[in-house]
Amino acid sequence: MNTHNMNEGTAGIDLHSHTTASDGELEPAQLVELAAKTGLSALAVTDHDTTGGLADAIEAAKSVQLQIVPGIEISAKISHGQCHLLGYFIDPHGARLNARLNELQEARRQRNVKLLQKLNDLGIKITFEDVKYFAGRDLVARPHFAKALVKLGVVTTAQEAFDKYLAEGASAAVPKEVITQQEAIDLIHEAGGVAILAHPNNLKLPPVETEEAILRMRNMGLDGIEAYYSLHTEEDRERYLDMAKKLDMVVSGGSDFHGESVKPGIRLGGVIDGSPVPSSVLDAIYLLKDKLK
Q1: What's the average model confidence in pLDDT over 72-87?
Q2: Of these four, 49, 164, 201, 251, which has the most CB atoms within 10 Å of its CB?
Q3: What secondary structure letter does DSSP report for 277?
Q4: Dihedral (CA of 130, 136, 140, 143) sign
């Protein structure tokens, strides 16, 4: 698969996006069309715990001037906060990766059953069909529950649905089964990918402890940090760029685009003060991928 041409144009890139294969609003082909209209030269499709949208995205990109970086976003265990690891240039057909993803998806299905039961126990008349209506594919996730709760008039917004019922610690919350940081990094590497810590602020740690956590992950094989992120302040960005330099890691950047109904206000390509990430960031990741090989 030809996934990269060095210095392929000067347009910006976005290395963090989601489709209906996980919890995004757009089908893979629609996401590709939007990326092309936005003027991006490269897009990483990084659905949660699945490679299901990659084939359609790669096929759709053949008719436009857009490079698809085959990716994934894997949730990993952490004592508090959130640890998500992005994998870039993965082989979507990697046997071990897909076997483990299938296990995680089965755990997600079981979680959905428990979540539905909890909502019913709270007196909310909601069925799986109500939720499935909003899921473009087989994978049903919490944003689909949120949309169903809005449609049923239980809440007025998806955010209210998360705050009251779905978010961690809310009345109907069910813990998600996640794998260790080491296993997530190893799975990405075994599939030929580069492992990057997504949205490091989500670790919910003070700066010094954040750096210590990233150093521990670097010692497990973590390759880089998502320094450029749609919700980062300039101060955040500079701190993570400095941290990556200090720890000899690559940097990445992306919007974390899901669609307006899932993550309002997050625009595809809107990463650094509303602009895309420079394509040189992808060149550095691609060089590291070749080195890891």
Answers
A1: 93
A2: 49
A3: B
A4: negative
Same-domain pairing of 84 and 204: yes
Q: What letters, b where the CB count within 10 A reaches 16 and e where it falls short, cover 59-68?
A: ebbeeeebbb
Determine the structural domain holding residue 19 and report its residue range.
13-93+184-292
Say if 4 falls within a structural domain. Answer: no
Q: Please list, in sequence order, all residues whose beta carbon lies within 8 angstroms of the beta carbon of residue 2, skipping any fewer than 6 positions away.
A: none
Same domain, 124 and 143: yes
Long-range contacts formed by 123-131: CB under 8 A, 24+ apart: 124/149, 124/152, 124/154, 124/165, 125/152, 126/152, 126/154
Give 251-263 pLDDT, tens digit per residue.
999 999 999 888 8
Same-domain check for residues 85 and 105: no
What is the total count of domains within the chain?
Answer: 2
87 lies in some domain: yes
Distance CA 133, CA 261 (A): 15
- Looking up residue 281, the CATH number of its domain turns out to be 3.20.20.140
Q: Which amino acid is at 31?
A: L
Confidence of residue 178 (pLDDT cuts 50, 70, 90): confident
Burial of 224 (0-12, 13-18, 19+ CB in 10 A): buried
CA distance 80 to 58: 35
pLDDT band at 239 (very low <50, low <70, confident <90, very high): very high
The secondary structure of residue 175, as a DSSP letter, is P
Contact 89, 42 (CB under 8 A): no
Tell me how far apart the alpha carbons of residues 35 and 57 are, in angstroms, rounded to a whole number: 11
The encoded tokens of residue 13 equal: 């890139």
156: three-class secondary structure by DSSP: coil
The answer to whether the beta carbons of residues 43 and 18 sit under 8 Å apart is no
